[in-house]
Write a structure and sequence with these properties.
Layout (H helix, E strand, L loop, with lengths): L6 H24 L6 E7 L2 E8 L4 E6 L6 E6 L2 E7 L5 H5 L8 E4 L4 E7 L11
Antiparallel strand pairs: 1-2, 1-7, 3-4, 4-5, 6-7
Length: about 130
């Protein structure tokens, strides 16, 4: 038995193909897959500030007073402890971090800066 396509069948298949392709492209533009990265700043385990990490965005945040302070800076998707007055400057020497689950720890003032993201990670497990 032979299966023959008529001219009308070919038109119908073409129109359905174009409609389905347009629907797929429209949904990709309407719902883009943006994964937001956030730097969470915690002091003594309590969330103090969430800072957005995105291209072209810059923010500074100061923790503490005149003494025992730390300045946390974000710039174009990266975060660091720019300045503090701790004795060994380990948090400052860590430098910029930009990928989850990296973190910066400042033990004298109990500050932990962690990058959180909604995108899936290639890490199997983290033992805490």
């Amino acid at each position: 038995m032979r299966f023959l396509l008529t001219k009308g069948d070919k038109w119908l298949i073409s129109i359905l193909f174009v409609i389905s392709l347009c629907t797929i492209l429209y949904s990709l533009f309407l719902f883009p897959n943006h994964t937001a990265k956030v730097a969470e700043v915690r002091v003594n385990g309590t969330l103090v500030k969430s800072m957005q990490l995105r291209a072209g965005y810059r923010e500074e945040f100061r923790i503490g007073g005149q003494s025992e302070y730390a300045i946390i800076e974000t710039n174009s998707g990266k975060v660091r402890i720019r300045q503090d007055d701790s004795p060994r400057q380990i948090g400052v020497q860590t430098g910029w971090i930009s990928t989850p689950p990296q973190q910066i720890v400042n033990l004298p003032y109990r500050i932990v800066v962690t990058i959180i993201s909604s995108e899936p990670q290639d890490i199997d497990d983290i033992i805490r």
